[in-house]
Amino acid sequence: MIVKTEREKSASEPTGPVPISREEDPNPRHPTPDSMTENDTASTTDAQHMDEEKIKADLPLELWIWGGMTFTEDSMPNVCFYIRVCKYASRLELRERFGASSRIMKVLKFEDLRNYSLRSSLVNNTANHFVAYVHINPRNENSAPITLKFSKDCKLEDYEFLLSSLRSICHVDSDEARDVHV
Predict the structure, then answer these.
(1) E runs forming strands in the chain
(2) For residue 156, which of 60, 88, 29 has the smallest C-alpha distance?
Protein backbone atom coordinates (compact mmCIF):
# COMPACT_ATOMS: atom_id res chain seq x y z
CA MET A 1 0.00 0.00 0.00
CA ILE A 2 1.35 3.41 -0.99
CA VAL A 3 0.76 6.20 1.49
CA LYS A 4 1.30 9.79 0.41
CA THR A 5 2.54 12.42 2.81
CA GLU A 6 0.61 15.67 3.19
CA ARG A 7 3.18 17.44 1.00
CA GLU A 8 2.79 14.85 -1.79
CA LYS A 9 -1.00 15.07 -1.56
CA SER A 10 -1.04 18.84 -1.82
CA ALA A 11 1.49 18.78 -4.69
CA SER A 12 -0.78 16.51 -6.74
CA GLU A 13 -3.87 18.69 -6.22
CA PRO A 14 -4.43 21.70 -8.48
CA THR A 15 -3.75 25.06 -6.92
CA GLY A 16 -5.64 28.26 -7.53
CA PRO A 17 -9.18 28.62 -8.81
CA VAL A 18 -10.52 25.87 -11.00
CA PRO A 19 -11.84 27.36 -14.24
CA ILE A 20 -15.53 26.87 -14.87
CA SER A 21 -16.57 26.32 -18.45
CA ARG A 22 -19.11 28.75 -19.82
CA GLU A 23 -21.74 26.04 -19.89
CA GLU A 24 -21.34 24.84 -16.30
CA ASP A 25 -23.99 25.97 -13.87
CA PRO A 26 -22.34 27.70 -10.89
CA ASN A 27 -24.81 25.93 -8.62
CA PRO A 28 -25.08 22.27 -9.69
CA ARG A 29 -28.04 21.63 -7.38
CA HIS A 30 -30.19 23.48 -9.89
CA PRO A 31 -29.84 21.97 -13.38
CA THR A 32 -30.63 24.29 -16.24
CA PRO A 33 -32.97 23.22 -19.03
CA ASP A 34 -29.99 23.47 -21.41
CA SER A 35 -27.99 20.95 -19.36
CA MET A 36 -30.78 18.47 -18.63
CA THR A 37 -31.10 15.24 -20.57
CA GLU A 38 -34.39 13.49 -21.28
CA ASN A 39 -33.81 11.20 -18.28
CA ASP A 40 -33.06 14.19 -16.04
CA THR A 41 -36.23 15.89 -17.21
CA ALA A 42 -38.28 12.77 -16.60
CA SER A 43 -36.85 12.30 -13.11
CA THR A 44 -37.42 15.89 -12.04
CA THR A 45 -40.13 16.01 -9.42
CA ASP A 46 -42.88 18.61 -9.42
CA ALA A 47 -41.30 20.25 -6.36
CA GLN A 48 -37.94 20.55 -8.11
CA HIS A 49 -39.66 21.94 -11.20
CA MET A 50 -41.52 24.53 -9.15
CA ASP A 51 -38.28 25.43 -7.34
CA GLU A 52 -36.54 25.86 -10.71
CA GLU A 53 -39.37 28.09 -11.93
CA LYS A 54 -38.99 30.39 -8.91
CA ILE A 55 -35.26 30.91 -9.27
CA LYS A 56 -34.75 31.28 -13.00
CA ALA A 57 -36.46 32.52 -16.13
CA ASP A 58 -35.29 32.75 -19.74
CA LEU A 59 -36.69 35.64 -21.76
CA PRO A 60 -36.08 35.60 -25.54
CA LEU A 61 -35.01 38.92 -27.03
CA GLU A 62 -35.87 40.61 -30.31
CA LEU A 63 -33.35 43.40 -29.73
CA TRP A 64 -30.66 44.15 -27.17
CA ILE A 65 -28.31 47.08 -26.75
CA TRP A 66 -25.63 46.77 -24.07
CA GLY A 67 -23.15 49.60 -24.14
CA GLY A 68 -21.68 49.72 -27.63
CA MET A 69 -23.04 46.31 -28.70
CA THR A 70 -26.36 46.04 -30.57
CA PHE A 71 -28.02 42.91 -31.90
CA THR A 72 -31.42 42.07 -33.30
CA GLU A 73 -32.88 38.64 -33.83
CA ASP A 74 -32.23 39.09 -37.58
CA SER A 75 -28.60 40.20 -37.25
CA MET A 76 -27.25 36.66 -36.90
CA PRO A 77 -29.21 33.86 -38.64
CA ASN A 78 -29.99 30.78 -36.51
CA VAL A 79 -28.77 32.51 -33.34
CA CYS A 80 -31.15 33.62 -30.64
CA PHE A 81 -30.42 35.84 -27.68
CA TYR A 82 -32.12 35.77 -24.33
CA ILE A 83 -31.86 37.13 -20.82
CA ARG A 84 -31.64 34.62 -17.99
CA VAL A 85 -32.70 35.79 -14.55
CA CYS A 86 -30.76 33.69 -12.02
CA LYS A 87 -32.19 34.28 -8.55
CA TYR A 88 -29.95 31.64 -6.93
CA ALA A 89 -26.80 33.21 -8.41
CA SER A 90 -28.15 36.78 -8.00
CA ARG A 91 -27.41 37.89 -11.54
CA LEU A 92 -28.72 38.60 -15.03
CA GLU A 93 -27.06 36.81 -17.93
CA LEU A 94 -27.22 37.80 -21.57
CA ARG A 95 -26.97 34.48 -23.38
CA GLU A 96 -26.58 33.43 -26.99
CA ARG A 97 -28.00 30.14 -28.27
CA PHE A 98 -26.92 28.48 -31.50
CA GLY A 99 -28.59 25.11 -32.04
CA ALA A 100 -28.14 22.99 -28.92
CA SER A 101 -25.25 25.02 -27.51
CA SER A 102 -25.38 28.28 -25.63
CA ARG A 103 -22.91 30.65 -24.03
CA ILE A 104 -22.96 33.57 -21.64
CA MET A 105 -22.09 36.85 -23.37
CA LYS A 106 -22.57 39.36 -20.53
CA VAL A 107 -23.29 39.13 -16.81
CA LEU A 108 -24.65 41.78 -14.48
CA LYS A 109 -24.77 40.94 -10.76
CA PHE A 110 -27.80 42.03 -8.78
CA GLU A 111 -25.55 43.91 -6.32
CA ASP A 112 -24.22 46.01 -9.24
CA LEU A 113 -27.79 46.81 -10.29
CA ARG A 114 -28.11 49.07 -7.25
CA ASN A 115 -26.18 51.63 -9.34
CA TYR A 116 -28.77 51.54 -12.12
CA SER A 117 -32.21 53.00 -12.63
CA LEU A 118 -35.02 51.07 -14.28
CA ARG A 119 -37.62 52.05 -16.85
CA SER A 120 -39.99 49.51 -18.34
CA SER A 121 -42.73 49.59 -20.92
CA LEU A 122 -45.40 47.02 -21.69
CA VAL A 123 -48.08 47.35 -24.35
CA ASN A 124 -50.73 44.63 -24.55
CA ASN A 125 -52.02 44.48 -28.12
CA THR A 126 -54.15 41.34 -27.71
CA ALA A 127 -54.63 38.64 -25.13
CA ASN A 128 -51.64 36.66 -26.42
CA HIS A 129 -49.34 39.38 -27.72
CA PHE A 130 -47.49 42.19 -26.04
CA VAL A 131 -44.54 44.45 -26.73
CA ALA A 132 -42.16 44.87 -23.81
CA TYR A 133 -39.03 46.89 -23.21
CA VAL A 134 -36.71 47.29 -20.25
CA HIS A 135 -34.20 50.15 -20.04
CA ILE A 136 -31.54 49.82 -17.35
CA ASN A 137 -29.58 53.06 -17.13
CA PRO A 138 -26.43 53.59 -15.06
CA ARG A 139 -26.57 56.23 -12.37
CA ASN A 140 -22.85 56.87 -12.83
CA GLU A 141 -20.70 57.30 -15.92
CA ASN A 142 -18.61 54.14 -15.47
CA SER A 143 -21.29 51.72 -16.65
CA ALA A 144 -23.08 51.13 -19.93
CA PRO A 145 -26.84 51.53 -20.46
CA ILE A 146 -28.83 48.42 -21.36
CA THR A 147 -31.97 48.26 -23.52
CA LEU A 148 -33.88 45.01 -23.99
CA LYS A 149 -36.83 44.45 -26.31
CA PHE A 150 -38.45 41.11 -25.71
CA SER A 151 -39.49 38.70 -28.44
CA LYS A 152 -43.10 37.81 -29.16
CA ASP A 153 -42.17 34.35 -27.78
CA CYS A 154 -41.51 35.83 -24.34
CA LYS A 155 -43.99 34.73 -21.67
CA LEU A 156 -45.75 37.50 -19.78
CA GLU A 157 -45.14 35.78 -16.42
CA ASP A 158 -41.38 35.64 -17.16
CA TYR A 159 -41.38 39.35 -18.01
CA GLU A 160 -43.19 40.11 -14.75
CA PHE A 161 -40.69 37.92 -12.87
CA LEU A 162 -37.81 39.92 -14.40
CA LEU A 163 -39.44 43.23 -13.50
CA SER A 164 -40.17 42.21 -9.92
CA SER A 165 -36.55 41.06 -9.54
CA LEU A 166 -35.21 44.32 -10.99
CA ARG A 167 -37.62 46.58 -9.08
CA SER A 168 -36.51 45.06 -5.80
CA ILE A 169 -32.92 46.10 -6.60
CA CYS A 170 -32.81 49.04 -9.03
CA HIS A 171 -33.95 52.60 -8.51
CA VAL A 172 -37.24 52.89 -10.41
CA ASP A 173 -37.47 56.09 -12.47
CA SER A 174 -40.39 58.29 -11.46
CA ASP A 175 -41.26 58.71 -15.14
CA GLU A 176 -41.37 54.95 -15.70
CA ALA A 177 -43.76 54.07 -18.50
CA ARG A 178 -46.90 52.43 -17.23
CA ASP A 179 -48.45 49.30 -18.66
CA VAL A 180 -50.82 50.09 -21.49
CA HIS A 181 -53.71 47.90 -22.63
CA VAL A 182 -54.89 48.47 -26.19
Answers:
(1) 56-66, 69-72, 79-86, 91-98, 101-109, 116-126, 129-138, 146-150, 171-172, 180-181
(2) 60
Task: Name all contacts of 33-36 with Cβ < 8 Å and 24+ positions apart.
Answer: 33/58, 34/97, 34/102
At the second CATH level, the architecture of 47-181 is: Roll (2.30)
As separate numbers, helices (DSSP H) first and strands (DSSP E) second, the chain gives 4, 10
Q: Please write the tens of the pLDDT for every residue from 141-158.
A: 888 899 999 988 888 888
Sequence-distant (6+) residues with CB within 8 A of 108 are 91, 92, 136, 146
Q: What are phi and psi of 180, to 5 degrees?
A: -120, 135
Q: What is the model's pTM?
A: 0.62
